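Sample intake sheet
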Amino acid sequence: MEGRDIPAALHRHWTASDAGDFEAEHDIYREDAVLDYPQSGERIRGRRNIQSSRAAQPNRKRFSVRRITGADDLWVTEYVLTYDGRPSFTVSIMEFVDGKVARETQYFGDPFEPGPSRAQWVERIP
């Protein structure tokens, strides 16, 4: 896959993720891909292990992509991952080798109430 094909592959990946199509969702990964969750200290090695770990989650998940940006072999997706109706603002950093994801790191941020000290300078994001 050439660099210009990566955005299309990412869109297919996130669409399949939202649809719960675990096979199509994981087409983007190399067989030896590594997935890191720094906040929980977890690392999952191998495409099948990544897929199995996600399929085992009992939660109803929804994915809403806000932005995909990148170049060459490094791509970032900002999205809202909703577990059973509870949103988590998420960033996925994917490193590609030969057109497939070799390494992904995901960061999760739960929503919080805005600070009153900055209220006069902010606008609410939908």
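Comment: The mean pLDDT is 93. Strands lie at 29-37, 42-45, 61-71, 74-83, 86-97, 100-109.
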